[in-house]
Amino acid sequence: MMQRLSEEQFESWRKDARVLEKDRYGEKVLLLADGTMLKLFRRKSWFSKTLFFPPAERFADNAVALRRLNVPCPQVISTYKLLNPYRSVVHYYPLAGATLRGMLQTEQSLDQLVLFTQLAEFITSLHEKGVYFRSLHLGNIVLTPDGQLGLIDISDLRCVGRPLSKGMRNRNYRHLLRYREDWVLVDESVRALFPLFS
Length: 198
What we know:
Phosphorylase Kinase, domain 1; 2 domains; 3-stranded antiparallel sheet
């Protein structure tokens, strides 16, 4: 159940926070002084499904479902609603590690073949576990300090309770591969690990 987040509490968190992501509507992700994070979701219209099932609740439910499936992901502390302006808010411990996108951009000695072989196996395991992640991209996949791959930004995800169909797997791969700015940094021989690459 979402709690109401007072403007006073939000401002006290926000005062010493670092803004990690924002758009023209305002702040979207805040890193708080204690190392936890707030993710804020706006309601895009008054007559949308988010009115009945806010994204912050989806995020929290998906975190529980992923942990049951042994998929590393953020650990949710609580969910809130902020009224002015309206936002659904999730407060969580971030998943430790580096995103694959960040690693590609900064680590010159990265062994891409090893990492992307692990990624291909990870995605196959997600599909076998019934995880359909429409926002699957290299910025949402983290390599943890203990060498596992995990998922972040998990509100746009479904756990369907059975292995994904071939069509759903292909759609998932298309989402992953459409971010050309990521894949131009990947060696051509490594791209062959992934179906549908063109």
